[in-house]
Write a structure and sequence with these properties.
Length: 368
């Protein structure tokens, strides 16, 4: 009798284990991503929020701003009949509630680059806002993935990293500079010059995220294309100067490129939410801390990244030809300067490396 029972158990056990393992796997990857957009009232922030409200992967969208208009934006977005829930938060006293429990925190908006403006000037204008958000994120949600659209990401990503290190919660996987717009522009200009559908073109970007540091890797364009050197030089120029070229078309000097930038951010965040949900083939380009041997060349740079549930899973440097290597070497001078600007702001003597008060926990929640 014992042997017959054992035989039954042996037959049932594989089935039970298979079911249990499948159930456990689903439990691990079935989550409800929460995304926070900081500076949601900015032109870029509004457009990002509009696009993310339509994402099938986002369970809850939190909008934060110091402007009371954030309540109106949230109410307007809530009328879009998608499953994503929208909540709004106004003022410094509720930034903790906006940030905590978010899987992804996006710092958007801020002062955008004007033609001829230096990275140092732009950093000085935006650093306080990004640093304040980083302090709250490090204190109340260090496991959230902190994504930066606000320029210059080449300085702000290292600055946020240093702030996290001071707080003792640094995880390089969770601090990302979004650079998707550069790849989008490269795809556009390549399609324009060589023909074909732009939606079928994929161009890796390396280096940085500015007019002097963005390097398109034409030799690795997919589908493979034989682009003459003279054409690559022209496309490279168009990619780097695209922002200035568009801004010159606007009569209002305060205008910024908010539409295509927002699409780039939304695409990246959608890719990241899919990775959080357990998809394994989530690849993009972004400005991040390098993990491999390339870190000896530049500790931070734009490269191909594979996304995972905790942020950056791995970084990859595509093969580059001699012309692209020359451009990257030139770009590295500016990138390294910008990295030092961000790091020294926290750890060295820079613009104003003052001690700031630790975020208070005694705050009131206001939601809509």
């Amino acid at each position: 009798m014992f042997s017959s029972k054992l035989s039954v158990v042996n037959k049932i056990l594989p089935f039970v284990l298979r079911k249990c393992c499948t159930f456990t796997h689903k439990q691990v990857f079935t989550t409800h991503p929460v995304v926070t957009v900081l500076n949601a009232c900015s032109n870029i922030g509004r457009n990002i929020s509009l696009l993310l409200k339509q994402s099938p992967h986002i369970h809850e969208l939190k909008l934060y701003d110091v402007n009371k208009e954030v309540f109106n934006i949230a109410e307007d977005l809530s009328h879009i009949d998608t499953r994503t829930q929208v909540k709004s938060f106004k003022g410094n006293h509720v930034i903790r509630q906006a940030i905590e429990d978010a899987d992804i925190i996006i710092h958007a908006g801020g002062c955008q680059r004007k033609p001829g403006e230096t990275s140092a000037k732009l950093f000085e204008q935006n650093v306080d806002s990004v640093r304040a958000a980083a302090l709250y994120a490090a204190e109340f949600n260090p496991k959230g993935i902190f994504c930066i659209q606000t320029p210059p990401v080449e300085s702000l990503v290292p600055m946020v990293s240093e702030e996290y290190k001071k707080a003792g919660v640094y995880d390089a996987r969770k601090i990302i500079g979004i650079t998707s717009i550069s790849s989008m522009r490269a795809n556009h200009f390549i399609a324009k010059y060589i023909g074909g559908s732009v939606s079928d073109i994929l161009t890796p970007i390396v280096g940085g995220h500015g007019p002097l540091s963005t390097v398109a890797v034409f030799s690795q364009v997919r589908p493979q294309a034989n682009i003459p050197q003279s054409t690559t030089q022209l496309i490279q120029r168009n990619i780097c100067e695209a922002e200035d070229d568009i801004l010159k078309l606007f009569k209002d000097p305060s205008s910024c490129i908010s539409l295509s930038t927002a699409v780039g951010v939304a695409r990246f965040v959608n890719n990241l939410t899919k990775a959080i949900l357990g998809e394994t083939n989530c690849v993009d380009c972004a400005f991040v801390r390098q993990m491999g041997h390339i870190a000896n060349f530049l500790p931070y740079m734009t490269s191909i990244i594979r996304l995972g549930r905790h942020g950056v899973l791995s970084t990859h440097m595509p093969k580059i030809n001699d012309q692209e290597a020359y451009r990257l070497k030139k770009a590295s001078i500016f990138i390294r300067t910008n990295i030092h600007l961000g790091e020294n702001f926290i750890s060295g003597s820079s613009l104003k490396n003052e001690e700031v008060a630790k975020p208070t926990e005694n705050i009131e929640s206001v939601k809509q």
